[in-house]
Amino acid sequence: MAEATVNLNDLHFAGDDRVVPFQVEGLDVRGRAVQLGPLLNTILGRHEYPGPVARLLAEAIVLTALLGTSLKFDGKFTVQTKGDGPVDLLVADFSTPDSLRAYARYDEDALADAIKDGRTSPPELLGQGVLAFTIDQGRGMQPYQGIVPLDGSSLEEIAGVYFRQSEQIPTKVRLGVAELFDRDAEGKPRHNWRAGGLVAQFLPQAPERMRQPDLHGGDGDERDTEVIDDAWNEARSLVETIDTDELTDPQVAIERLLFRLFHERGVRVYAPQTVHDRCSCSRDKIKSVLNGFTAEEIEASQEDGHIAVTCEFCSTTYHYEVAEFAAA
Ligand SMILES: [Zn+2]
Question: Near ion ligand 1, which residues have CB within 5 Å?
Answer without folding.
Answer: 279, 281, 311, 313-314
